[in-house]
Amino acid sequence: MCAPVLTPGTLRILLLHPLPSMRSISLFGIAVFATALHAQDDANFSCLTHDPGLLSRITNDDPEMLQRMEMARTELELRTDGFERDRGQGFVIPVVFHIVHAFGQENISNEQVEDAIRILNDDYNKENPDWVNVRPAFLDLVADVGITFRLAQRDPQGNCSNGITRTVSTLTHEGDYAMTQLIQWPRDRYMNIWVGAQANGAAGYTNYPWVLDNSPQSDGIVVRAGYVGSIGTSSPGRSRVLSHEVGHWLNLQHCWGNSNDPGSEDNCSMDDGVQDTPLTKGWTSCALSGASCGSALDNVENYMEYSYCDKMFTLGQADRMIAALTSSVADRSDLWQPTNLSATGVTDDPLLCHAEFSMDRHQICAGESISFTDLSYNHVVTRSWEFPGGAPTTSTDYHPDVVYDEPGTYPVTLTVGDGTSTLSSTQIVAVEVLPYPGMTIPFAEGFEAIDDLNGSDWTTFDPYSDGTYNVTSLASVTGSQSVRLPNTGSMSGRTDALISPVFDLSDAEEITLTYRYAFAKRNNDNVDGLGVYVSNDCGTTWSLRRQLWAISTLSTGGVVVGNFVPTEEQWAENTITSISGNYAVEGFRFKFQFTHGGGNDLYLDDINLNGLTVGMDDRSNSEGIRLWPNPAQDRATLEMDLVANGQVSIRILDVLGRPVAPSAQLRMGRGLHRIDLPLTNLADGTYFLHVYGDPVDQMVKLIVGQHP
């Protein structure tokens, strides 16, 4: 009988109503494995196996493509019919994991990937310890499939690799076809596995070989980061998802057949094309005594179930997978050929070819520690760390913790060896240690004395390296400078942060943070947001204190299609007083974190941190600066003894850090200077005189009127 020719119209009918003669065939085998049992946010997952829209993406509703797909299906089924594998033959498949991340938990560790490979090899070689617990009725059917999975040691260009790539993209939160197109290695040489924060609403999914035969760009497995291996972001209960998905990738169906609705009685009319798996309706719980569809006992512990107590493939399933692996359909038979194993480096002795390390953070306060990890590959026998300024100063550990007591910037060097040769990696500015306790308050920043935020006391966080906060003279509230954050449509979904120096608020009360900002939308649908966070542990953890959104409080300039440069009237002021006593510490920091949402540039200026200190002497003066009389009435005299020539700015702030008089900029030489300060326009109260510039940066408390 000739195989039917598929057309887009007949395809939809077949998807919904499989013909009896096609009982074991899914016409679009994107198999998805997910459940609410182990992840609350998977509760609403949707299975994509029979989704016509996804098929249309692959075929573009091209009748010729559909016909080629049907021909590949027929070829593979003819090969599978009656196929019996050589039980003594083993196969090796080179594997590459593409970790797509946006600097979140989805950026899983190398160790977690290696753990996933370990579990795959256990499950496909009958080395998983739990197989002996299979129900007696199926114990003799537990298969040693005979497939070994190895992380590639050479990339497609023949360069050294550890079989793991990392790509930064917000598409990780989709986990769809677009994410897989960011990076892919040739499918005839590697099994591609993409790891994302999401997997298109599932725990994982993939396609059958015959579906992908003429669509190599779609070939591979997508898995959510929380289902990779058994450690890190995953758990033992989630660790068999890849075993399930590789089964689909090698032409296995669910034990109940084409349906993606386990538990439905309708599944009894279908089958999975494997003789030794009983007919079943499918299970989402570990009902070990479960029986359905007239079977005496269902194989609930099968990897192709959703039961989460899976621990076996049957002999018939193993034959079906090896039939696919030894077929040319979707280039599966190319993967395990000796020439490819050599080209991908999986048959060679491990080759030391790369020295690399990571750290859990780059910036700390004095007295804190940093955790380092050796990421070198592939055959590290010896390692030696050098930590100038740290304690210890050297180490041979894989994962050393190092304490830094003195402020400054420090290099780190790692040297690894394989017993014959050595490789080294050095980061010249690997560690930045900030002063602790931090700066005193009040603090006022107008960015007038800063040319570049790099090298200043401020820290920028630009994870995508696409442009971040920096000083600009395009606009300002006072003076001539502010900070600007570029914002384009290509940045949507990304974040940037401007992080303050460290402050000592241990004696502070009534902590107040004020700042001026300006922002315009490009259209009314923009979803940009500015969050203000505070930290009481030098920036290790953060707590949100204010959130402004483009659709409401963030927009000060309306809609500007071109580049936004705020006018004097387009600046707004925000005051934050919800900073409790838990933040009256020696290691206080704050940050402005912006989430790009399609809008225009953001501007910040006149940032002030205040908190009247307990027991502060109203007449206290800063080193090198004297102010008298204090309290003052109509005028006061400022005396400065400058140690160098430079530009000096002077301004008077209220207790919220807001300028109350025009600032003055003076070019002054080294030595003693006296400046007359008229105060007649100031109401009685408490103020702060801020003197800052190249040779000085001091704040003096000023009382106008009678002493309280």
Describe this entry's structure for a reader.
The protein has 708 residues and is α+β, with helices and mostly antiparallel strands. It has four domains: 8-322, 3-Layer(aba) Sandwich (Collagenase (Catalytic Domain)), CATH 3.40.390.10; 357-434, Immunoglobulins (Immunoglobulin-like), CATH 2.60.40.10; 445-610, Jelly Rolls (Sandwich); 625-704, Sandwich (Immunoglobulin-like), CATH 2.60.40.2550. The strands form seven sheets. Strands 1, 2, 3, 4, 5, 6 and 7 form a seven-stranded mixed sheet that branches. Strands 17, 19, 20, 22, 25 and 27 form a six-stranded antiparallel sheet that branches.
CATH architectural label of the largest domain: 3-Layer(aba) Sandwich
Cα distance spanning the termini? 103 Å
Alpha-beta content class? alpha+beta
What fraction of the residues are assigned to beta strands by DSSP?
25-35%
**Strand element count:** 34
The residue fraction in helices comes out at: 10-25%
CATH fold type of the largest domain: Collagenase (Catalytic Domain)
How many helices? The count is: 10
Q: Ranges with pLDDT <50 over ≥5 residues?
A: 1-47, 613-622
